[in-house]
Structure formats: structure tokens, C-alpha cells
Amino acid sequence: MPACPTRRAPDPTTCIEAATYQDSPLPDSRYSPFDPDCRACPRLASYLDRSRSTVPDCHCRPVPPFGADRPGLLIVGLAPGLHGANRTGRPFTGDYAGVLLYETLHGYGYASGPVSTSLSDGLVLHDCRITNAVKCVPPENKPEGTEIRRCNGFLRAELADLPDHALILALGLVAHKAVCMALDVRLSAYPFAHGAEHVLPDGRILFDSYHCSRYNTQTRRLTPDMFRAVFDRIALRRK
Ligand code: SF4
Fold it and tell me: How far is CA 206 from the centre of its chain?
């Protein structure tokens, strides 16, 4: 497992609860279609209730995936941001985390425009879908291991619905681990690394990138060139 940065504040997209579920027995997750009214995580449901009263015009519910129904590329992030996806109702929309992502998706033909601002902005994704490992905003962007496991049935169902040729891109260690959990593959066989390309037992390919968070982009842990290099590799595998 990559070490967390030692001279900076820990980044939740790479360090959070890394030890709590790595290679632990796989949960008895079931395939669950996304439930926009889910309140299965008491801590997160309570946080949503509190954020609803403080963020005006807030979505403040589980955030559904965005994009094509049966995409050739599924992008998996961590969780909604409080003032981003949690407010707007679309993953990576309304805060800094989506800036590099949508700009890059547009550059590679996956998005009709380079920015995502709201549900009514007319943006369309082509052959691409964006989801999160955890559908509800967690306090301080840090979902707990139990919440990641509980929400994994939704991700499991999304992965099961993908076409056989679909590619998967995990943004950050937590997303990578959630994908492995949902696919019942051992983390030790598929270690996270930025730029890694894992051929899964069913032949599908899982790509890894550092999360395109404000923290990672502003510290240049993830630069636009590094992110585009991942999409260059995806383009080579795209069918
Ligand atoms: S995080 Fe997932 S499982 Fe937990 S309440 Fe939200 S939608 Fe439900």
C-alpha cells in the first residue's frame, strides 16, 4: 500500500481507513440498485440532515451516478463533497474536484463540455459514467469502513451492469479498494498505484489514478499531464 504523504496533512482520498478493510473478509454485499432515499448509514443520514439546514437549495441526499447507462468507461470517485456533489446532486460538480476531471473528459471526447456546474447545465457524457464508492457526503470527506462496505452493494450492481468491454477508472485508493471489494478480488493481487493498469480475472481492466481533488492538484501530486497520461492509456484500450 502506498504510504500517505508524511510532510503534509493526510489526504482522505488516499489514506482514509486504509488498514480497516484491506484484505479483510469480503462482506456479504448484495447487488443493490441505487436508492435515492437510502438512509442505511446513521452517521451519514444525520450529517445529511444537518447539511440540509445549512446549505441553501442543497440536494443533500445520496448522489446518483451521472452519465451513460451502459458505458465503455466507468469512473469511480470517493464520495460527494459537501459543497459540490452533495449540493448539486451530480458527482464532481459544483466544487474544485471536478475541474480537472470534466476538462479532461471533454478533451478525450467523453463530455459535451469542459465544465460541470449544475444538473441543468445541459452537460452530457458519451460512453462514460461517473459514480462514487460512497453515495452520501461524509463528514470531512472521510467515510468509515462500515459505510464503504454498506454502500458497496450499489457499486457492485453498477459494475455488474457494465458491458463486457467496459473499462474502469478508480480515482484514489479508497475507490480502488471499493472496486476490488465489489468485484470480489483480493487487494493484494491488485495493489493501487497511480498509472497502474490491472487486468481483472474476467478480462476487464481497472486503471488507477490519484484522485483529482483540490489537495492533490494544488500540491501537484496529480498534474494535468499525469491525469492525461492515464486517459491516454485508457484510449489505447478503448473498443
Ligand atoms: S452511504 Fe450508501 S449505504 Fe450509506 S446511507 Fe448513503 S446511499 Fe445508503
Answer: 13
Tell me if 233 CB under 6 Å of ligand 1.
no
Q: Where are the domains of the chain?
A: 41-237
Pairing status of strand 167-171 against strand 73-77: parallel
Overall CATH class of domain 41-237: alpha beta
Ligand 1 atom closest to the CA of 143, numbered from 1: 1
What would the pLDDT profile of 122-173 be if each residue is shown by its tens digit? 999 999 999 999 999 999 999 999 999 999 999 999 999 999 999 999 999 9
The Cα–Cα gap between 175 and 169 comes to 9
Contact 177, 13 (CB under 8 A): no
The DSSP secondary-structure symbol of 82 reads T
The C-alpha cell that represents 177 in the structure block: 479498494
Q: Is 41 in the pocket of ligand 1 (CB under 6 A)?
A: yes
151 C-beta closer than 6 A to ligand 1: yes
Q: What is the DSSP letter of 61?
A: S
- CA-nearest residue for atom 2, ligand 1, is 151
Tens digit of each residue's pLDDT (9 = 90 or more) over 32-66: 889 999 999 999 999 999 988 887 789 999 999 99
User: Residue 224 corresponds to which cell in the numbers above?
Assistant: 494535468
Alpha helix ranges (H) inside the chain: 12-15, 18-21, 42-54, 85-88, 97-107, 145-160, 173-183, 214-218, 224-237
